Task: structure prediction
Amino acid sequence: MSFVVAIDGPAAAGKGTLARRIAEHYGFHHLDTGLTYRATAKALLDRGLPLDDEAVAEGMARELDLSGLDRAVLSRHEIGEAASKVAVMTPVRRALVEAQRRFSLKEPGAVLDGRDIGTVVCPGAPVKLYVTASPEVRAKRRLDEIVANGGNADYAAIFADVRTRDERDMARADSPLKPAQDAHLLDTSEMSIEAAFSAAKSIIDARLEQ
Ligand code: DC
Result:
């Protein structure tokens, strides 16, 4: 049976970096499930289709090929905005959750990160992590990332954006962001990526040895 590591948490908490590091260390497959919502939204935008028609959006979600997700293209801000609109639609979520569950069965194991992995997609995962950091730290990390990539941005605007996204993810009726009851909480506000990885590794190793 494959081994699943479920990672959830708010935007810019460092879960993607942590998930990639875990997948690389254990030789597991990795899926950033946010990209599946982003790719669905981009498919609609590219075809000039509306973002508020559930049946059309579900059709795009069902056609999605998980092997062709391009993080560089999909990380654009406008695509994130459009993704948060399709992510509230139950038929879209149902289609993408089915594809994510199929992915989670890959041998020898899979790391999935998102908002509802431990609660909805893989509730039976042997390891569930809920990765958070204060909104101030998350906004600062996002700003540093933009600057490091040669862009420029305003801290206050990014901070406001982080708060809006938290509100939207947590207030959603279908599959809101929240820790699973048996999730390990990892607050990375004052932790380096190596420290977060080392904490996660202890939890995973303990389960692999059982
Ligand atoms: O993490 P992200 O910014 O790439 O996510 C894009 C959007 O998709 C965001 O609005 C949250 C949503 N999402 C979700 O509803 N469920 C997931 N498992 C992953 C992302």
User: Anything to note?
Assistant: Residues 11 and 148 are 19 Å apart (CA to CA).
